[in-house]
Amino acid sequence: MTANPADAVWDAIYGISRFAALSTMAELDFAAHLRDGPLSADQLAARCEAHPLSVRRVLRELAGMGFVRSVPEGYEVTEAGLLLADDSPGSLRSAIRLVGEEAYWNGMGKLPKTVKSGVSAFRELHGPVYKYLGANPEAAVVFDDYMTRRAIPFANGLADHYDFTGVERVVDVGGGRGHILTAVLAAHPGTRGVLFDLDRVIPSGREAIAAAGLADRCECVVGDFFVPDGIPAGDVYILANVIHNWNDDDSVRILSNIRAAMPSTGKILIVEIVLPDDDSPHVGLDGDMRMLALIGDGMERTRTEYQTLLEKSGLALSEIVELPAWASAVVATPI
Q1: Is the pLDDT of residue 100 over 70?
Q2: What does the alpha-carbon distance between residue 188 and residue 262 come to, in Å, rounded to a whole number?
Q3: Three-class secondary structure assignment of 118-135
Q4: How confident is the model at residue 200 (pLDDT cuts 50, 70, 90)?
Q5: Closest to 248 measured CA to CA, from 298, 186, 194
Q6: Given the residues 33, 126, 179, 244, the one annotated as active site
Q7: How many CB atoms lie within 10 A of CB 11?
Q8: 8 Å CB contact between 284 and 273
Q9: Domains plus CATH for the chain?
């Protein structure tokens, strides 16, 4: 039977409703309340301080999606649903909460306006993303947790798939809470590290590094990668989920500043999603729509586009190392 071309359109339309139900489950913490056993809709509503009939309607949708199931006592959480509990291994609650955050959701909904003007509607309404996060600490906590959890697969992957043998000093530029750097240092005891980021971020990064038992091997430095001569010296620089936040001109500034700080034998590992050069389906294309909506001129890039950026920055693309979770390490060396 030939597929109805309209099916794909309707699936996208109804997908918004399904996500809204999932966002409700994450925000009201259904999984944590249901973890210890089934509850009726009324009981769950009482625990969430929510409207009982509305909770019952959302539970029906979630049951159809496979995140809860109905039982004689009411509803119980499924294995998939447990991924929306904060303390579950591989928890995705912060990812759902971030996309459902009011400003984020609003920015995605205004993508047509962004495309028409070429200026992010999110930025027009709320200012730059990182400025917004600085002014909204609750959203910043969700964002930081999401970035940490998102990075775990390719943080471990980078430590396992890239050879850090002989590297004395790794500088994680814009490294957030240091999740990638700690994975690298844990796997390579002879290597020392530097976490380099803004003053808003460094305190939580310092705590995470101390908690990992790596404070004696890792220095935390406050700074801005747009400031020439401000980047610490190192043998290998990690740029993870950084370059995709910036347009080509700003990306060249960042890369050029690192190029000026590194030795002739140094390397930069740009950890990002690398899009195919053709129009093949790829999860990174979804990410690119988010970058367009929220940042505007930030973007995911193809291998060819990375090669062009590097050449403008006095660097050469040496190799691309495939990592888990759709990420890659674009390895750059000085020309």
Answers
A1: yes
A2: 21
A3: CCCHHHHHHCCHHHHHHH
A4: confident
A5: 298
A6: 244
A7: 10
A8: yes
A9: 6-86 (1.10.10.10), 143-334 (3.40.50.150)
169 C-beta neighbours (distance < 10 Å), count: 16
Among residues 329, 252, 248, which one has the least CA distance to residue 296?
Answer: 248
Task: Please tell me the distance from the alpha carbon of residue 77 to that of residue 313, in angstroms, as a whole number.
Answer: 51
φ, ψ at 244 (rounded to 5°): -70, -10
Instruction: Please confirm, yes or no, whether 51 is among the known catalytic residues.
Output: no
Q: State how far the Cα of 329 lies from the Cα of 268, in Å rounded to an integer.
A: 9
Q: Which amino acid is at 278?
A: D
Please state, in angstroms and rounded to a whole number, the distance separating the CA atoms of residues 34 and 270: 41
**pTM for this one?**
0.84
pLDDT in tens, 297-313: 899 999 999 999 999 99
Q: In whole angstroms, what is the distance from residue 309 CA to residue 203 CA?
A: 32
Match 């034998």 to its residue by tokens.
Answer: 265
What is the C-alpha to C-alpha distance for residues 14 and 16, in angstroms, rounded to an integer?
A: 5
